[in-house]
Amino acid sequence: MNDRGVSLGDAPRGAMEAPMASEQKSKRRLSRRQILRSGAAALGGTGALLAGATSAPQNQGPAVLTGTQIGRTFRGLVRHDTTLDVQELRLLPIDPRQVVIRSLAVAPCYTIVRGALGTNPIQRAEVPNHCGFGVVEDAGAMVKRVQVGDRVVVAGTAQCGQCYQCLQGRPDYCQLTFFSNAPGVEAFPPFAEMRDGTRVYAQAGIGGISEIMTAFEEYCVPVFSDLPAAELTLLGDQLSSGFAAGHADMHFQPGSDVAVFGAGAVGLGAIQAGRVMGAGQVIAIDPIKYRREFAVKMGATIALDPVAEGDGLVERVRELCRGANDRRFAGGVSWGRAVNAVMARGADFVVEAAGLQAFPPKVEAQPDPTNVKTVQQAWDSTRMGGHVMLMGLTLQPVSFPGAALALLGRTIHPGQQGGLHAMRDIPRYVKLIEKGKIDAKSMITKRYTLENSRQAVQDTADRTIITGVIELA
Known about the structure:
The protein is an alpha/beta fold and 473 residues long. The protein has 17 helices and 18 strands.
């Protein structure tokens, strides 16, 4: 769950090159083929591309032009200069691998609030967010995954199935998302323009808080379900990321001890994964009272206040995970004077989903706004040989003892969308919602219209809601 606020890019748009010439001359574009080719040297490929190792892309022909969609007007929430408000927009031509989507519902992610509500001027107009849900109304000539009329979840991470990362089984790091995310590279051209001709970009090539989205097909997951759009849109990022952390990546075990730091939308997804997968206990940790109470409703067996627990928080988690006995030869762990008396104890699985504080909240504040202390507590709360996933954004350096890294056997899992494989996992989670296993409806604590969508972003920043959904139809 990250702020993918840097716009990514793709091939030139033939028909749009002339009016955009002055804007584009200073930027180097990479074609989709070049991005994928970089996968042969996945670890060092980005540096080579930025150093100019890849030759200039060839013109791939004009964009798709349709008589029914291009030029249509619609409204969207736009961050422009220092303002964030609803603007009338006009749709620009789409790429042959893009689709035009009529948005039905979108849930603003906490990671966008700093960019959306900040007071510093931004260089270009942009529709915020990086996921959404809607119905395909037009598709480029090369699109195969979806077709007109499909209901689609637009996920925050692409899954092309062809790049190095996808072929290594890590579509959560698909190169269409990450390897084009570099300074001076514009992978996603503008998708609309304002009345005065100002070109408007979609954050991460998706945006979402607008009546119309455009997205490359690799971000789209067709959903064959009649579930409400407001529930399905949660699978684009927050809920699916948290649930995938326990289900798709760390694989919570029946009867295991799970601790989740942060009971926002992502953390609650992980808490629900603990419940669905039969964890013995799920410990929720959050300073906000209403979120602790909500976490228990979602499946947590106990909820702790990190402010009240203070420096004793880690020891409290360890004690809760102590186990039924301390007899080493009866499946327990000796808590005697052995060196591992402290280090061996802790949760089997720990998810850090707190994240740094973008703005001072209007509810109880977290103990450390930088989130560094929370990350360290999550590490310390993990048992020897256990698993910890770091999902929250932490911009400051975090240090762990070298000996502990080498000897304690703790596995650190990166938290990029919880290890979600969008095309594989989202349809599974749709079925779990249909069967009542995942509770998506309760996660929606407030609904908005496009007219008050700015308030939805503000409430998300204030942390006065779990998840706000903007309903566009």
